[in-house]
Description:
By secondary structure, this protein is of the alpha/beta class. Helices cover 20% and strands 28% of the residues. The chain has six helices and 15 strands. A six-stranded mixed beta sheet has the order 10-9-8-11-15-14, with helices on both faces. Strands 1-2-3-5-4 form a five-stranded mixed β-barrel. Helix 1 (104-116) packs across helix 6 (287-297). The radius of gyration is 21 Å and the shape is globular. The termini are far apart. Mean pLDDT is 87; it is low at 197-212.
Amino acid sequence: xxxxxxxxxxxxxxxxxxxxxxxxxxxxxxxxxxxxxxxxxxxxxxxxxxxxxxxxxxxxxxxxxxxxxxxxxxxxxxxxxxxxxxxxxxxxxxxxxxxxxxxxxxxxxxxxxxxxxxxxxxxxxxxxxxxxxxxxxxxxxxxxxxxxxxxxxxxxxxxxxxxxxxxxxxxxxxxxxxxxxxxxxxxxxxxxxxxxxxxxxxxxxxxxxxxxxxxxxxxxxxxxxxxxxxxxxxxxxxxxxxxxxxxxxxxxxxxxxxxxxxxxxxxxxxxxxxxxxxxxxxxxxxxxxxxxxxxxxxxx
Length: 300
C-alpha cells in the first residue's frame, strides 16, 4: 500500500496509510541506495508492506515532486544532502521582528534555497506586538515590493493568526526559520493542542534553544485539511551543490537585467558594463539585497 511519512527518527518511520498509522522500518536493500541523500524523510510517499498489526516495512520510496534540502557535513570532510522534507507545496519562513533581531541576510539565504526548490515562499513576520505594525511593515517592505507574500503575526495577541490559518488550509507546508523566532508558539495558536514545544529565548546569546528535536509532518484539523512539516531550527543554512551561475536568478529583482551585461557569464560583481550593477546604481536593486548576493556568491 502507499503511505506518507509523518515522522522519521532513528531508523523508524511513522507512516499514514488508508488503513491507519503504521510504525515502519526500511527494507535492508534500501539502506544501500541513495547514500548521498536521506533515504526517507517526512512528506515522502512510500510503498509499505504490513508485517503485524500497527507495523510494517518500507519497500520503496516514490520519486519526490519537490524537496527542501540543505548542505550538511558528512564524514571525512565531505558534504551530503540533508533533505528536510519532501513533496511540499509551500515554505513558511518565520522571522521575528525582534527578540531575536530580524536578519535580512538570513532571510535572503532562505529565499535562495526556496527559489531553487520550486516551492512557494511565504514570509511570516512574527512578534509584531514587540515593535508595532508600522515598524513591522517597514522591516519587511522590501520583500513585499518583490511580491513575496508576507503575513504579519503575533502569537501573543492573536494578530494575523486567521490569515496564517487560511494560507495553511489544504496545502502541504513546511515551516522553518531560526530558533527562537516563535514557530512553536505561533503554530500552537493556529491549532490549539498541537503540542509543539515552546522554547525559551536565551537572553545571554539572544538565540533560541532548539526545542523541536524531530522533524514531523502534522495533519491539520482545518476544514480543508492540510499538513504542516515542523522542522528543527536551523542556525546555518548551506546551499546544496549550488552552481554559482544560477545564484543571480534566485534574486527576483535581478532577473529583468540578466542577459543584458556586456560580458557573457558576468558575475555582477567586478565586470564593467554590468546591467545588474547599473540597476543597483539607479536604485532599482537595494544595496542590502545586492550585498547578500555578493556574500553568497563569495561563499560567506
